[in-house]
Amino acid sequence: MPEKLYFSKLYLQMENGAGMITNLRHFDLARRVTGYAVSAILASLIYFVWLTVSTTFGGVGTTHPGLIFGFGFALFFLFVGGFAPALLLMIVPWAIAVWAHLKTRWDGRIYFPGVGALLVFTLGCTTASISPKPFWIEDQTFLEGAVIAAQRQGVCLLLSGIAFGACYWWIERQIRAML
Asked: Does residue 14 carry a pLDDT above 60?
């Protein structure tokens, strides 16, 4: 009987138990970082397309700027307008949300899009409020800036957050299915 235990996988895991746990943690971290990065790219793409379309074709009765201007405007505001900083600030709250999901085991199809929408909307409005403003925009308080950001970009931020969370959940599910 000890010979069978010696050649089994269980014995190898018992011999190198700490190494196995470390390797699994590294793989788990890499999987989560990949899911976050791909989800952030998708959310940024949705934000970018939304701003491009609304800049290029928005406004009733006004002259429409060209598509090149819309691309430039959207790219500029993607980084300066608060969305990219919001995704950077969201790393720690998202890690806490993933940890909470592991503890609560709520349905990921609802949990991740909901938490993603909440975090992207909240942090997006916050970073848009504290981002630098051009000189011709009058001074505003933090709360006024957050309300203006919610009015102008609220739907876009919510949809980007839902897409972020849904993409993260889908990637997590696909990677777990491959294991």
From this structure: no
Give the residue-averaged pLDDT of 120-144: 84
Measure the CA–CA gap between 168 and 108, rounded to whole angstroms.
9
- Written as one letter, the residue type at 148 is I
Of the candidates 112, 116, 51, 124, the one whose C-alpha atom is nearest the C-alpha of residue 86 is: 124
CA 35 to chain centre: 9
Please tell me the total count of domains within the chain: 1
Q: Which helix (H) or strand (E) holds 106?
A: none
Cα 118 vs. chain centroid, distance in angstroms? 11
pLDDT for position 25: 55
Range of 57's domain? 2-178
The total number of residues shown for the chain amounts to 179
Residue whose C-alpha is closest to residue 124's, from 152, 101, 105: 152
Residue type, position 86, single letter: A
Ramachandran assignment for 62, one of left (phi > 0), alpha (psi -120 to 50 degrees), beta (any other): beta
b/e code 39-65 from CB counts within 10 Å (16+ = b): bbebbbebbbebbbebbbeeeeeeeee
Q: Which two three-digit tokens encode residue 173?
A: 């599910």
Q: How far apart are CA 61 and CA 95, in angstroms?
A: 45
Token digits for 52? 């491009």
